[in-house]
Amino acid sequence: MTSAHPPQPARSNSRREFLGVLASGIGIGAAGLATAPAATARPLASTWNLRALQASTSFANGTALPFFRFAPSGGGGRRGQLPFFEAPEGTAVDVVIDNQLPIALRPALIGVAEGPVIAPGASGVFSFTMPPAGSYLFGQAPPRFSSRSHGPVAHPSHSGLTASVTSRPASGLPELYGGGPTFDREYGLIYEDADDRINLTMGSGIPQRTKPYEPNYFTVNGLAFPDAASDPDTLVAGSLGEDILIRFGNFGRMRQSIHFHGYHAQIVAQNNVPDATMPPKDTIAVPYLGTVDVILTPHQIGVFPLHPHSLTAVTANGFYPLGALTLISIT
User: 15-39+183-330 with 47-168: one CATH topology?
Assistant: First the structure.
């Protein structure tokens, strides 16, 4: 956590008031952001070691909220506080998971493959082949659809078991997929939400409230503002005219529309399906368990907010500007 936090004004639905508080209270100077480093490269690997454990995330409103988390222990790295893994498409991958949680889990590369159930206190191996080049989510296998419901039933007891996977094109070139859009640098931003009534009891054996699900805490890469804006993998930094690839993913059960201040971005793929049908947009819809890849080509220098367009999602239980807010810094 950073030592300086923004003021905590009363709740309000005013977008203008929110932007005014952001401009005056973030305590992060543009000069300091202008020199923020780009996200660092990480080695490729074919074995990924993870621990599933109980952790806590601190928010600037003074709350420390429990989450279940994956923690990298070899073969991969982090983006913010979340594990990250990359390998060329077609690579055979073994994910070795040490489950230190009081519950069983079933890992999945969302939309691609699901692994075995791993009991509490046990270890297991989830093997898969890297899918075609693109952006993927890794986490707890999603719940099955029910004939009695209008959608998937939430798994609140697994809040926070999230990671991201990048499948690199076999060409080895800095492109999203073989023959696809090229880029000068890249970032991955993974969004989550949490209902504190559920997180405070998960894993305790206490019957959990599952409906209505009312998220009141929000993170990007496992961080909340202002920490997200000081993390080199979550602050989007670049230079004028660069092509910056941003890989958006949403593990939150709340659909998010990510809003750019100061810029428009070009959608180039949705759920790893190439998409060049839309003009550049300043707001990008990212549904539950979905991914959207965009290219940002900055046309002006400055520091601008990047955040979900839902005011709730840039709060911590009503206090803002906190939540899943980060910044873009262009020199």
Answer: yes
